[in-house]
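Weekly structure sync - notes
Attendees: PM, LS, DV (DV joined late)
Agenda: review two folding runs queued last week.

Item 1: First target. Sequence and structure tokens pasted below for the record.
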Amino acid sequence: MMIVLALGRFGPPTSRVLTHVRRAGLMTREELARRTGLSASTVARTVAVLTDAELLRERPDLLVERPVGRPSIPLEIDTRHHVTVGCHVGRRTTTVSLGDLRGRVILRSTLATPDADSAELASLVNARLTSLLAQVPDRTVLGAGLVAPWGDIDFDEDELAQRLTDALGLPVKSGELIPAIAAAEYLARDQDLPGSTLYLYARDTVGFVMANQRPHGMEIARVGRLSHYPYGGITQCRCGRSGCLENVVSDEAVAASAMASGIVRLPDIDLVHQAATRGNDAAHRLLCARAEALGRVAAIVRDMVHPDRVVLCGQGLTSYPPALDVTRESFGRSTATRDPIDISFTRFVGDVQAVASGTVALRQVYDDPSAVIEDAQLARCSTS
């Protein structure tokens, strides 16, 4: 899978203006002309279209007076009128969510993922999203996104996307989870990341992608799954083999190990985190062992693909802050490449799956805002 995020002098003016404002937070018309390469008159016309469509709004209250000339009113993404819907399907848990046009999660809900029944899952997701949308009745839905670690779950991407499209009554854009997280990380930054960035994700599944900065934007390509990487051990994996990485580092495996050791009474990773936070040394050591393993694997992948930086994502890496340094130290000990490298953790903690599905939904909006608005207006007319 390849995601291309074009932020340079490409795409329709509405897309270029909207994307640059989203990344910057606030921008004036003059700044937009410089960043996009569009003429001042084109920027003015485009801004008028986007403000009329309630995708942008002016912020005169944030006006900075200039000593000479007419002051320029800042613009920002208008998050008051529209919403995107998102769905992340995990092996055990499905997350449904609503997001605003900046990609921030407004509402979310979770449910147990049914066993490989696309029709049942689509019905459950539709019911949850209907309930969430009832809490924001004045907002218009502009896009729907579906993400999952396809290949690590027992659902077909195309079939489930079509089931959800039929259930929701609007087109559902599907994508791979980890590239979507990388795209969300990139779009949330106010500056580009030159060179290449390795994103490694861990929760119940493990995988990585590479993001490469090109002159026309950022290319994010799926590189590989790591759930069944031969890490060692005798526990049999769901794939039928033993020694798979997910049997050591997944939430499911860690929670099961904690219950078997008497740390918790139920195989629930949140209970393990709570026990460790309250000072249970066995729970702390178990979570640190996972952090150490993930640091080693991240180092191996870094040595294979040789990126300029590493970003670690997913609750398996971020949900227990005391283990973050363990991961960093393990990475440092395990990498065979001794050149210094920037290693950081995702800025999205807790809602990362919801943010990823919202990012896929938002691509429809930012790639061609005019078409999305036209479709929404036609839908409103057909129901009035």
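Item 2: Second target, run right after the first with the same settings.
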Amino acid sequence: MSAKIIYERFLWFHNQVKQGQFPNASALAVHFEVAAKTAQRDIAFMRDRLHAPLEYVPTRRGYRYENDSYELPGLWLKENEVMSLLVSARLASTVPDSALTIRYYSPHNDEATTRDILPLHLLHYMGTWHLIAHCALKNGLRDFVLSRIRDIDPSTFTIACVPTASVKDYIRKNFGIMTGTGTFEVCLKFSPAVSPWLAEQVWHPAQQMYWENDKTLRLTFPVADFREVKREILRYGAHVEVVSPKALREEVKREIKKMKYIYR
């Protein structure tokens, strides 16, 4: 999808807020005929990346600006961002039938490698875009974080098409918090300050939400592993409490203790 179309959604939502219309994710989804999750991500992007001072007003079931002087920044794209958008558009509009040569940077070993890949699926996962592709170098499916792709060109390498079922199995196996069957049920309690934001998010298809009398929100969902959900919990700082399971609560406490020594 082009950056221009995405920016149009931001601009419409911004203008609705400016006009005192108290727009929400449902209104955005209906106006542009997009999925509710897409609308939720748009609002989150405005708040987190465009620094829009959005505040949810429960009585109006929509958003307003805490600071009415805020203006939406212009649409300026860097070269790598344009390349990412081109890859996104290609994946969104066609079934990939040719390979690409990319130079991919890995922060884990601080190295960049050149690979021939066949793009198969674009996935937005916990705020990050991932490209699922068959990698000729590793001779199998691999996950590439879109922002880490430094260069991209057409490839002369031939890669056989990979069955769709294989891609689905790979995602289920490697992206557990959102799509895994899970063996632990996590219960989180969010403060009134962030609860309206959380009420519009989908962490897992099987999640359940409960509003408490003190306007806090309880969110429960299954996970297969604590690592990813722990990162999300720490992201909300003092605005979230792990209610259960006890093992996850203890892991978060240990992490907070480590942080204490860093900032002492």
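Discussion on item 2: The chain has a mean pLDDT of 80.
Action: LS to circulate a short write-up before next sync.
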